[in-house]
Amino acid sequence: MASDDRPHVVWVNHYAVSPKEGGGTRHFELGRELVRRGYQVTIIASDFTLHTRQYSRRAGDSDRGGVLETIDGVRFWWLWAAPYHRNDWRRIWNWLSFGWRVARCRPAGARPAVVIGSSPDLFAAWGAARLATRLGSPFVLEVRDLWPESLLAGGGRVGLGYRALERLAGMLYRRARLVVTLTEGVARYLRDRGVGPVCCAPNGVDLAAFDGAPVRVGRGTTVVYLGAHGHLNGLDLVLDAAAALRDRPDVTIRLIGDGPEKAALVARARAEGLTNVRFDPPVPKASVPEALRTADVGLMVLREAPLFAFGVSPNKLFDYLGAGLPVITNVPGEVAEMVTAAGAGEVVPPGSGQALAAAIRRMADRPAEERAAFGAAGRRWVAEHHARDVVAGDLAAALEPVVADG
User: Fold this and answer.
1) I want to staple 320 with a disulfide (CB 3.0 to 4.6 A). Which of 73, 101, 298, 404 is the partner?
2) Amino acid 217: pLDDT
3) What's this model's pTM, rounded to 2 decimal places?
């Protein structure tokens, strides 16, 4: 067993999850790879989950102690954050309360060799920066969601909130010894604005989890979407496509996941009689390979927004490729380039349910051997460029000088 003098990486992500739960397990999987490379890793997250709006590891709001859990050598420290049930001011209090807890906490183990603050929301990253200052550790900023630019992608506008987040983001960029992005497009965007040094550590896939998961060959075609059901995910376009595919009883669209738009999507499908759409609950990350074994095609969709041309690195895309599924996507820019480079499927214009429907028709009409060829090409490509051990090796190399300089 490795000794306690291993360099200690503390990684703060408000929404990090374990493989027992639904959602992206980027930090756990990369953390596990860093442990294999001789690091200690502690992930600090909230156990008030984004989709269920419930605590997963404490009895309720009054139980505010930290909860420690170790999985495959990666230590999770679950901190309390204020509960909320709607996207109102209480959600902002959830962000602030978590960031404040992070800033004041003292992670178990050796003094961190580096504290990484991840930005699904900037307040968690702010808490990580304060924690790093208090403990005398280098701070690294991981840009998951690009703030304040993500406000505009969600339909917001430049105003007081935008300017406040812009100032907070600028402070974090200046404070960071290294900025980690998930896409090369975001890396270029930040470098063009004078941010640096910047490295890219994209999302990826644990290929071993998908071993023995070939494309299903059977009657009909099942098209699967696996992920969040939110405003930005563009699932209204998928229902538009389903309506255009009423004449194809051999095609089923399966939407796996949860989110704030799910109830409205279910209601619309019911009102329009879209019997070719099936809504399923989210599955834990460990169950994703099994869920994808019953699919023929993976659907990677988002609503139309300029930011998505360079600012997203979707876990679901790499899961589809790891499972050997052909992919249909309406996301332009880097996502489209990846699908094309991999030879893994079709790219359609954004914002069009009719275009999605046409691509689904074409894929359903292809012989099973052609679909399998798309899937095999995608799996080869993702193994070369986005396997978790490959990404973790690049990240470890980028962190090494930060850790060495202390």
Assistant:
1) 298
2) 55
3) 0.86
